[in-house]
């Protein structure tokens, strides 16, 4: 168990070769041109590349030319402050970093996650000042562990970008990192290049890997599950739900457990939060 408590992020990783799976869709021209020539250029080049090997060569050149050594792309489901699910595109990440990040629950301590979920523009960061604000002793120990792991992976500084997904619970975070210490090397042009790389890659991945990315909807629920989800937002007890649905409280409990499993909700509060976002009524 990590020092963040009982809650754990359901993480899976995928790579560039999986973007050539059967049924992959090309990004529409409107998506590629919406951000201007810089953004369109990267997305279009990825789209027009003959295969995974060519895409990887292109991306590694673009990343290094902008002054970075690695790139992490993550599509997350965030319930309040808790990252419930995450799909990590790890082709350009340091080897083993995605797995360690998920295993040690760094989603819950990394301040870049919260910032990227609130603001949709690129921001510079460095390990030396990332945890400069006072925190509880246990959190300090956890932060030191994160910083040590990041240094081992060569992630000393860089730029992160948060992008909206159209679902209030889902966010996309792209982080480009360097082995350089401090953030003095990061100029305005570096921020712009990082944003262009992030948006171009995001546009391509979203179209190609839609079935791989986590998504929270109520579309697949049956009538009973949908009713119980709605009752959760209203604060009804299991007994009150059972009376309204003419079933036993035991059956209501079963459906609640299934709903928590479907949405990876750790408790009733998280389930209510999710329900309020996805039911739309």
From TrEMBL:
* GO MF: DNA binding
Keyword Repeat set for record: no
**Keyword terms of this UniProt record:** DNA-binding, Transcription, Transcription regulation
What SUPFAM superfamilies does this protein map onto? C-terminal effector domain of the bipartite response regulators, Pheromone-binding domain of LuxR-like quorum-sensing transcription factors
- Which InterPro entries does the entry link to? Sig_transdc_resp-reg_C-effctor, TF_LuxR_autoind-bd_dom, TF_LuxR_autoind-bd_dom_sf, Tscrpt_reg_LuxR_C, WH-like_DNA-bd_sf
Q: Residues in domain HTH luxR-type?
A: 218-275
Q: Which GO terms describe its biological process?
A: regulation of DNA-templated transcription
Q: Which residues form a coiled coil?
A: none
The name on file for this protein is Regulatory protein, luxR family
């Amino acid at each position: 168990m990590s020092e963040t408590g009982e809650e754990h992020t359901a993480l899976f990783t995928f790579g560039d070769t999986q973007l050539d799976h059967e049924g992959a869709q090309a990004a529409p021209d409107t998506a590629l041109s919406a951000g201007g020539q810089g953004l369109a250029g990267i997305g279009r080049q990825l789209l027009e590349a003959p295969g995974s090997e060519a895409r990887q060569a292109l991306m590694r050149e673009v990343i290094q030319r902008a002054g970075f050594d690695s790139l992490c792309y993550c599509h997350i489901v965030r319930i309040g402050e808790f990252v419930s699910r995450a799909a990590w595109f790890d082709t350009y990440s340091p080897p083993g970093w995605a797995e360690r990040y998920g295993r040690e629950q760094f989603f819950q301590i990394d301040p870049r996650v919260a910032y990227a979920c609130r603001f949709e523009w690129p921001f510079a960061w460095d390990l030396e000042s990332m945890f400069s604000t006072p925190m509880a002793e246990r959190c300090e120990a956890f932060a030191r562990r994160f910083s040590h792991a990041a240094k081992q992976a060569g992630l000393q500084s860089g730029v992160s970008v948060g992008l909206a997904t159209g679902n209030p619970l889902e966010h996309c975070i792209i982080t480009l990192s360097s082995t350089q210490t401090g953030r003095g090397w990061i100029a305005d042009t570096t921020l712009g290049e990082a944003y262009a790389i992030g948006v171009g890659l995001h546009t391509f991945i979203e179209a190609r890997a839609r079935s791989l990315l986590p998504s929270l909807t109520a579309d697949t629920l049956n009538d009973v599950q949908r009713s119980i989800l709605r009752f959760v937002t209203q604060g009804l007890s299991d007994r009150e739900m059972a009376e309204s649905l003419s079933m036993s409280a035991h059956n209501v409990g079963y459906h609640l457990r299934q709903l928590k499993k479907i949405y990876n909700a750790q408790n009733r509060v998280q389930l209510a939060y999710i329900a309020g976002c996805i039911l739309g009524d």
